[in-house]
Amino acid sequence: MSLLKVWGRVFTNVHEVLTHVTSMMPIVASAAFVDSIQTAFQGVARGCGWQKLGAYINLGSCYILGVPFSVVSSFVFHLKGQAERAVARVRNSGAKVEDQNVNVAS
Q1: For residue 49, is it left (φ>0), alpha (ψ between -120 and 50) or beta?
Q2: Hey, where are the domains in the chain?
Q3: Are 20 and 4 in contact (CB under 8 A)?
Q4: d(C-alpha 31, C-alpha 35), whole Å
């Protein structure tokens, strides 16, 4: 977290991109931290011969926690991605872009 405003500068100097990267870093850091804990527990379970338990935990974390969290985030809290703005920004920039049939629903 101490490099919150540095990570974006590794890739670009565009202010808007840096703002988005800075706003997403706490979420990415939290996900990486939680994932490291789960990875450690999976290693312990495998070492103890509890592979079946580890498989159930992986499935549960995806389908019982991950999918409902994604649905609530997108449909209840309306946390949309930035795809619409990104497509509009590229089209308005005047850059030559090959049409790849990108349709972004409004």
Answers
A1: left
A2: 7-92
A3: no
A4: 6
CB 9 within 8 A of CB 18: yes
- Rounded distance, CA 36 to CA 30, Å? 10
Q: Which residue type is seen at 49?
A: G
Token pair of 53, please? 């338990």
34-90: pLDDT as tens digits: 889 888 888 898 899 998 988 888 888 888 988 888 888 777 777 666 566 666 777
Between CA 97 and CA 90 the distance in angstroms is 8
- Please report, as a single letter, which amino acid is at residue 15: H
Q: For the whole prediction, is pTM greater than 0.70?
A: no
Residue with token string 């997108």: 74
